[in-house]
Structure formats: structure tokens, C-alpha cells
Amino acid sequence: MSLFFFYLNHLNISSSILIVSLAALLVGISKAGLKGLGFIIVTLYALVYEARHSTGMLLPLLIFADCFAVYYYRNFIVWKHLIRIMPTMVIGVLIGVYYGHHISSEGYKRTLAIIIIFSGSMMIFFDRLNKDYIPQNKAFAWFLGLGAGFTTMVGNLAGAFSNLYFLAMRFPKNEFIGTTAFMFFILNIFKLPFHVFVWKTLDKEAFLEILYFYPLVVLGFLIGIKIVGYFSNEFFKNYIIAVTIIGAIIIFFKS
Description:
By secondary structure, this protein is mainly α. Helices cover 79% and strands 0% of the residues.
């Protein structure tokens, strides 16, 4: 039996499908450039699946959405900054693979919740600072690269770390979205074999079942493109951070 059905059999099926459908729609919206939704997506998946498997089950949706984002924003990729941060992100992924493979399911769940809370809190903190206070040296880039690589492997939550780096570089909107889109496309492809062969959070049947949610990713991406063009989201961003931290607390105490 696939991992997908194994977990759905232990939950209310209709509510589980509804949650995963919402997450798939938000994946598309997020990859179109509406930052800040990653925490909610991961929280939704972690409420449906066991924490470690939730990161694997989400990955095919992320890669699918990455393809649209890379194509749409292909002319806005800033290669020099991508090359600067990618090596340490790869190292962070490898650290995350080792860590995630050697801790218990309970420990993984707690780690995921802590990362969500920490990342959300970090976004609040840096959002209150002037951009000039963010350092722009190599050590800063290496630290954020390691943090992004580790968190993307452990919880698909590198957004807070990468956002801080590209915020420090003062990227315009399209360059910001295009560069991060290609970065996460490469990282997610790099992570895939570890989920399949090391963590075993994905199998063939589970992957085929996830295909049913791909149309919602496409719909979400089209919606996101429209929103990014004109949406002012100061209140929305604060709302997302608040809901994210609440969701992390739920995951932390969820039995």
C-alpha cells in the first residue's frame, strides 16, 4: 500500500483530501511569487501526514510548481548571487539528510515545529528593521545558505533564510522571485533522491496519487500571478505569520 493511502486510512479521508487540496492550491500561489505561504503549506501537510513523510509527499508538488515559476521568471534570474549562496545550501541539505535520518519521528515533529516558529519569528524581527541593518558579507551569506539548505531538507522551509539574503541584496520584485524560483528548483531536484532512497518518504504509488493535485497547483499559480501584480499584503503577511506560529504549536503538541 502506498504511503499516501496508509496515512489517509488513519484520518478522515474527506477532510484530509480537502487539506491537501488547499495546500496544493497554495503551493501554486506561493511559487508565483506570493511569499510567506510556505509555512502554512508545510503546516497543512504536517497535519495530514506524519511529520517526516509530509516533507516527502509535498516535494513533487513543489517541483511541479517550480517548473512554472522558472519558466515564467526565466529572464529575471541573477546568476552571481545564485552561485554565491548555492554551495552552502547544498551542504545544509546534506546535514539535514543525516539529521533527519537519525532522529525519531517524535523528534522530527518537534524539530519541524521549532523551525516553523523560529523562522516565523525571524521574519517578524527582520521585518521591523531597516534593510541597512542586515549585513551583506560572506559570513552572512554562508550562514543563511546553511540554514536554508538544512530547513529545506528537514521541512521544505528555506524561505525565511533565503528571503533574508535576497532582501539584503535589495532585489527588485521580479529578480527576487526569478532567482529564488531557480534556486529552489535545483534544491528540490537535489533533495528528491534522498527522500526516495534514504528517508523512503516517497514511493511510486504515492507519487502517482499526488498527480491528482497537480491541476490545483496550476490554478494556484495562475491566481498567484494575478495577485503579485497588484496585491499589497502588509496585513496579509502579518496574518500569515500569526497563523503559521499557531499551526506550528498545533504540530508541536499533536499526538
